[in-house]
Amino acid sequence: MSHGGGGHAAELYPENQIVAVGTLLAILGMYIAQFFPQVSMLLGGLLASAATVAGANTTRKVAAYGLGTGVPSIGMLSLGMGIISSVSGIYLVNALVKYFKVDSLVLYAIPIVVTVIALILGYIVGRLTVKPIGMKIPVMVESMTKLSLMGALSILGFCAAYAGGFLPDIIIPGSIKNGVMALAFIAAGMAILHPFNACLGPDESHRRTLTLAVACGFLTWFVFSVAKLDVISTVVSLVLWALVYREFIKQSLRDACAVYYTPELPKREM
Amino acid sequence: MDFSALLIPFVEITLAGAIINASVHFVPVGGAPAAMATSTGIGTGTTQLAAGAGFTGLMAAATIAAQSGVDIFNPLHWAIILLSGAVGSMIMLGLTMLMGQLIYVFGVGVVPAADKCERDPITGDYQKPYITPGTTGHGVPTVCFISGLIGAALGGIGGALAYVALIQLGFSPEIAGTIAVGFFFMNAVLASYNIGGTIEGFHDPKFKKIPNGIIASFVASLLTGAIVVLMSLGI
């Protein structure tokens, strides 16, 4: 199985387990950001990076089959679906309250609604890539569903952490109208697509890719902490990132081989 | 809110998805091989190129739409916004191809030559003798350049159409821009999966796969359009 990336090395943890943990942690992070705005960036940001790690892990699984267009394409697709689902989740629930006069308690279900929309959108786009487009990757539909979910959760997670809540009257002026969502789009996108893009190859190992994914998640969190001018989160995220990245470099050096001698190219074909 | 005020943007956004998808098929994408000048086209992936051209178009459209005195519901102004998107996109992709071409010709030292056709359909020049054995063409020949410009124009129109539809639904420019970017990426990547890596332009045999991509984007945009229209009730 080494068409494009040669992934599918032994898995450290099953993919579904990582996806489930990532989803739960990211949703928990949004509720923490909502109910404890003082620590929204410290805990909400930390937990939102769990979603990017899970997304990076799913990217690894699907991109190892060889997409033909490079790993970044699927990361961007994931964030494209994610941004539509996360913005629409916020506004759809708002529409329920404003237009259909539902009790405003329903606003607290925004993360759940976003999850459901992301799953539906991801599933349908996944089906479209299989037919009529004709991608011959067996895990395409389920991977698209998971990637769409992770894209949506990471965007909403970081936006909620930045704004200090996910209620429409907090997050729309606090994160969407000032353009922080665009930062969430590209920063979380990098964290999802970069780890496997950097680590792919014949000797790709799950541990190393996951370590880099965690490092990228912390780096995204760091970017948001700086954007929010939150000193504690900035320091904590930077320290955590440095620790994990050091571990990543150690693993890379251990797995790398040294080339001591390069022979000259033969003068003619043997 | 009356029904037609929602229906027109819904139709626009659905068409925008199909146009964006079609546009990507025109852009000469060489991918990694082109970055080493061993394949015709620009040396980067479909997504990046389409995104670059699309965003520029989106920016150009948004800039015009934000001018005072521009009424988004006036058909003439609507057409001008779309055209400015197309022009912005074409400038961006045209410059990318031109600079790439300069590097290919004067830096790498290869002759622009298309692999997928015997003679250039536009200039009529022979292509095959100029292709280095073992490669699939190099540089950005005339036909690819023209094809790329058509693709950029379509991409700009598609991006601008999505943006205009969102503005007509009543979203503020920031939100419309954010959603349009996500929407653009989704359709561009669907197209790039349909192409499956590299394409030279409208003369490439892979271009015949374009209906599949357009259908896929049409369905995806239909769904997105429905979501977006429902969303607009919550503003």
SSE layout:
The complex is a heterodimer of chains A (about 270) and B (about 240).
Chain A: H1 15-35, H2 40-63, H3 71-99, H4 110-130, H5 140-163, H6 168-176, H7 180-199, H8 206-228, H9 231-255
Helix pairs in contact in A: 1-2, 1-5, 2-5, 2-7, 2-8, 2-9, 3-4, 3-5, 3-7, 4-5, 5-6, 5-7, 7-8, 8-9
Chain B: H1 3-26, H2 31-35, H3 46-65, H4 75-108, H5 142-168, H6 173-195, H7 210-232
Labels describing this entry:
heterodimer; A: 270 residues; mainly alpha; 0% strand; disordered N terminus; B: 235 residues
How would you describe what is shown here?
The complex is a heterodimer of chains A (270) and B (235). Chain A is mostly helical and 270 residues long. Chain A has one domain. Chain A contains nine helices and no strands. Chain A has helices at 15-35, 40-63, 71-99, 110-130, 140-163, 168-176, 180-199, 206-228, 231-255. The longest helix of chain A is centred in the first third of the chain and has 29 residues, at 71-99. Chain A is globular, with a radius of gyration of 20 Å. Chain A starts with 14 loop residues before the first helix and ends in a 15-residue tail after the last helix. Chain B has 235 residues and is mainly α. Chain B has one domain. Chain B is built from seven helices and no strands. Chain B has helices at 3-26, 31-35, 46-65, 75-108, 142-168, 173-195, 210-232. The relative contact order of chain B is 0.23. Chains A and B meet through α3, α4 and α7 of A and α3, α6 and α7 of B.
Binned strand content of chain B = under 5%
Tell me the helix content of chain A: over 70%
Helix/strand class of chain A:
mainly alpha
Mean pLDDT of chain B: 88
Order of helices and strands of chain A: HHHHHHHHH
Number of domains of chain A: 1
* Radius of gyration of CA atoms of chain A, rounded to a whole number: 20 Å
Largest interface: A-B, 46 and 45 residues
GO cellular component, one term (chain A): plasma membrane
Pathway (chain A): One-carbon metabolism; methanogenesis from CO(2); methyl-coenzyme M from 5,10-methylene-5,6,7,8-tetrahydromethanopterin: step 2/2
Subunit structure (chain A): The complex is composed of 8 subunits; MtrA, MtrB, MtrC, MtrD, MtrE, MtrF, MtrG and MtrH.
Subcellular location (chain A): Cell membrane
